[in-house]
Design goal:
TIM Barrel; alpha/beta; 8-stranded parallel β-barrel; single chain; binds manganese (II) ion; binds phosphoenolpyruvate; about 35% helix
Length: about 280
């Protein structure tokens, strides 16, 4: 079984912290909450999310501008215009931003505007992309492939590490199975196994794992109980109007409520969650 190399030299419980900004680090005592819409749609949309959720209960904003859509006829993302929206929101609200990179040619522009580059499930084994991200100079959020084994997942991470970038965060986002009731099956066993196999922080995306908003909160809690270092959850000011993944988008109010329910669970496993006591999403 492949383990990431640093782990072979260090204590199995050792964790490499991955710093996203001055005040946000994956792999520390704090469980990092990443939130935002599936797709960046407008400046108003992103400012609304940032105003209502950043920097607590959400410590990093995530929104796609290059979207890997199943159909070529579906909206493909705002591209450069979306990147500029992310950069403006980052600047105005002082919140780190994360967005997906689909091609080597996009790395430079995305690394200029965002704090972290996401590799989506469909690109987990795009080895040229992974190698180039080794030189991107920004942390990478690597999502597990649709049907990737843990060995393949760790091998993909190792490509980035071995090409010079030690700042990789793994994301379990559900794997394909036979039952279409849920979009995927959240593999919480993998979260526990990865914590034992690698020094890299591991976060969980219950949104793509389930595809259904009503299943997200309980699985977010289960993820924390299993030792996840963070959560990636899709939310939108008007969930039903999301241009992609509407069925799994939480409202901003539901997002606040969800994060508010997490501190006791986090405390039970020796972790913390950042909340704003008096925050009421209007
Ligand atoms: C996403 O994060 O919006 C996304 C496309 O996820 P995944 O790559 O996990 O399917
Ligand atoms: Mn999505």
């Amino acid at each position: 079984m492949l383990t990431t190399k640093l782990n072979e030299k260090t204590h199995p419980q050792h964790k490499t912290p991955v710093q996203l900004s001055e005040s946000v680090t994956f792999g520390g005592a704090e469980v990092v909450i990443v939130g935002g819409p599936c797709t960046v749609e407008s400046i108003t949309q992103m400012e609304t999310v940032a105003r209502k959720l950043g920097n607590a209960p959400v410590q990093a904003l995530r929104g796609g501008v290059y979207k890997p859509r199943t159909s070529p006829y579906s909206f493909q993302g705002l591209g450069q215009e979306g990147l500029e929206i992310l950069a403006r929101v980052r600047q105005k609200f002082g919140i780190p931003v994360i967005t997906e990179v689909m091609a080597v040619s996009q790395i430079e522009a995305i690394a200029t505007h965002a704090d972290m580059l996401q590799v989506g499930s469909r690109n987990m084994q795009n080895f040229d992309l992974l190698k180039a991200l080794g030189q991107a100079g920004k942390p990478v959020l690597l999502k597990r492939g649709l049907s990737a084994t843990l060995e393949e997942f760790l091998g993909a991470a190792e490509y980035i590490l071995s090409h010079g970038n030690p700042n990789v965060v793994l994301c379990e986002r559900g794997i394909r199975s036979f039952d279409a009731y849920t979009r995927n099956v959240l593999d919480l066993g993998a979260v526990v196994a990865l914590q034992q196999l690698t020094h890299l922080p591991v976060i969980v995306d219950p949104s793509h794992a389930t595809g259904k908003r009503e299943l997200i909160a309980p699985l977010a809690k289960a993820a924390i109980a299993c030792g996840a270092d963070g959560l990636l959850i899709e939310c939108h000011p008007e969930p039903e109007k999301s241009v992609s993944d509407a069925r799994q988008a939480l409202s901003l109010e539901a997002m606040v409520e969800l994060v508010r329910s997490l501190p006791p669970l986090a405390a039970a496993v020796g972790r913390t969650v950042r909340i704003v006591e008096d925050l009421v999403a209007a």
